[in-house]
Amino acid sequence: TANEIRTMLEHGIKATVNSDDPAYFRAYMNDNLLALQQEGSFTRDEITQLTRNAFDIAWLPDAQRQQYLRTLDQYVAQAV
User: Fold this and answer.
1) How far apart are CA 39 and CA 11, in angstroms?
2) Whole-prediction pTM value?
3) What is the distance between the alpha carbons of residues 11 and 34, in angstroms, rounded to a whole number?
């Protein structure tokens, strides 16, 4: 639930939001993050942290991870 995810973030746990088999469950990443924001009143910073966490724990070469994180930071900085 949203409260559990928020509690994990508050305790520094690298919580993430995922989409398992999105075609079957009809829940893609953006849909899941949007639902969390709407139902749990998550802030932009909290949604951004969840997204950062996903890149932080992904099995990616560090250079690629850093590029994704820079792109995320640029996107958030430009978002209204």
Assistant:
1) 21
2) 0.87
3) 22
For residues 54 and 18, what is the distance between their CA atoms, to the nearest angstrom?
A: 8
Please enumerate, as own/partner, the contacts of 14-19 that have beta carbons within 8 Å and a separation of 24 or more.
14/53, 14/56, 14/57, 15/50, 15/53, 16/50, 16/53, 16/54, 16/57, 17/50, 17/54, 18/54
Distance CA 80, CA 63 (A): 28
CB 67 within 8 A of CB 57: no
25, 54, 79 from 14: Cα distances, Å? 24, 8, 23
Structure confidence by residue, pLDDT tens digits, 17-65: 987 776 766 778 888 899 889 989 999 999 999 999 999 999 999 999 9
**Diameter of the chain measured on Cα atoms:** 35
